[in-house]
Amino acid sequence: MKSMALRTRQRTVFLLNKYLTGDSIDYNQIIDIIIPLFVDQAFLVLMSLLNTAMVSSAGVAAVSAVSMVDSLNIFLVNVFIAVATGGTVIVAQFKGSGNMKMVSKTATQAISAVTIFSLLLGALVIVFHSQMLTLLFGKAEADVMQNARIYLIGSCLSYPFIAIFQAVTGALRGVGETKPCLNLSLLLNLSNTVLNVLLIIVFHLGVEGLIIATIAARLLGMAASLLYIIKYNDTIHFKIRNAIHFDFSILKKVMFIGLPFAAEQIFFNGGKLLTQTFIVTLGTLAMTANAIGGSVTLLFQIGPNAIGIALVTVVGQCIGRKNIQDARKFTKSLMGLSSILFVVTSLILLPFFPLLMKLFHTPDEIVPTIFTLIVVSAIAQPLLWPISFNMPAALRAAGDSNFTSVASLLSMWLLRVVLGYLLGITFGFGIIGVWVAMIIEWGVRGTIFVWRFKGKKWYAHKLV
Q1: Domain contains 351
Q2: Which residues of the chain register pLDDT less than 50?
């Protein structure tokens, strides 16, 4: 028995050394980066799942409104998260090169830039919220639109809080300090969930309760993250007086990565938003099926999402050390791990599908549709999701932001939007047609990224 356990351990160590150890980083460091990210992503998704389930208790109008506005929220929030990602990449590369003074300066400037972006964006959306909702979702039912207005304005008020939180945790991830990120994320998400239970389930405040909980939790998360990097972190050395002075040479590097990624997020999520407008025309039940199906598929993506975030740190530090061989090796290994995680997660979660439907108070008539969406995704994700989402994270960490952004935009608008409309609306396949178009787009986009990765141009950028 002991000898068998010993052989298993030796075999595991051999595989970890073979695929996750190089000159730049060893497997222990990579595991230390991934595990907190995995736990963080698990809590994020589970909290989102529970929040959607709690809101669904207020009826299909509430869950449809939240789903509708969340598609717009993702579109907007990802703009300043993209800028934060630019900071993560540059921080990781400076960390890899050993220049800790520039790590501190870059992190500080990234936090300043993201704060300004979020304030401007939130104010702009509040001023024009009614016009935006009418333009995008004018065909939605009246009670859905009323809930959507409340939720959108409340979300905008929380933008600066979540923006600063994301910029801080992004900088910490860049230097490989993912455990503090996990602790901060747990604080934010657990407080959000506790407040949701109190305000939605106990006091029956519906969408208003969801908004109050979101603002309070994000404010707490921002305060805790700033307190940590001001008083307790020895790597970033953040000082508020340095944050109010702009260093344009550093901001230029951050924006070289961040702005193309922000433009990609605007147009990429704009395509997803336009797809959401197709779904509105299919009716409230189709919107509900899409919302619940999307929430469930996020469970499958917990591990691969964590790996995608880790790739920015790992590849960024390899590029900072000028070690292209390690950057290639770790990208391939971690993408392979993503595919394995998809298969394992599918085998674990699919038997619990009926239980998940009860959790969401799902109307009986849309359960078969949701099951079809989940099964189709479970088949496609191990093959197509890593090359479509993990691969561009690695390319971007090397500074190849322009190419990844252009490729993503073209595939989104030429395939997912156009094909989604044709399959979902023109040919009458409904929500299933929209999802099939999305999966086809994953495959095409991923193929483009694999082709780029095989060449040399993706790591030719000189950032640090």
Answers
A1: yes
A2: none
Q: How far apart are CA 289 and CA 294, in angstroms?
A: 8
Query: Is 221 a member of any domain?
Result: yes
How far is residue 204's CA from residue 137's CA, in Å, rounded to a whole number? 26
What pLDDT does 2 receive? Answer: 59
Q: What is the pLDDT of residue 137?
A: 77
Instruction: Give the CA radius of gyration of the chain.
Output: 22
Q: Could you tell me if 215 and 157 are in contact, meaning their C-beta atoms sit under 8 angstroms apart?
A: yes
In a domain, 13, yes or no: no
Range of the domain at 253: 22-459
Distance in angstroms (rounded) separating the CA atoms of residues 139 and 259: 33
In DSSP notation, 266-326 reads HHHHHHHHHHHHHHHHT-HHHHHHHHHHHHHHHHHTHHHHHHHHHHHHHHHHHHHTT-HHH
76 within a domain of the structure (yes/no): yes
3-class DSSP assignment, residue 428: coil
What pLDDT was estimated at residue 70? 77
Q: What is the 3-state secondary structure (H, E, C) of 4-30?
A: HHHHHHHHHHHHHHHHHCCCCCCHHHH
pLDDT tens by residue, 157-183: 999 999 999 999 999 999 989 899 989
Tell me what pLDDT residue 289 has: 87
- Looking at residue 203, the DSSP 8-state letter turns out to be S
Amino acid letter, residue 179 = K
Q: Tell me the C-alpha distance between 234 and 230, whole Å.
A: 9
Nearest to 81 by CA among 148, 171, 191, 157: 171
When divided into structural domains, the chain yields a total of: 1
Tell me which residue of 293, 305, 329, 394 sits closest to 38, measured CA to CA. Answer: 305
What pLDDT, on a 0 to 100 scale, did the predictor assign at position 52?
A: 66
Choose among 324, 256, 249: nearest CA to 22: 324
Res 57: pLDDT? 67
Provide the token pair at 195. 């407040």
Contacts of 230 (CB under 8 A, 6+ apart): 238, 239, 240
Identity at 296, one-letter amino acid code = V
pLDDT given at position 247: 87
Picking from 378, 375, 125, 389, the residue whose alpha carbon sits closest to that of residue 268 is 389
End-to-end CA distance of the chain: 52
Cα-based distances in Å from 257 to 110, 133, 135, 404: 11, 30, 31, 11
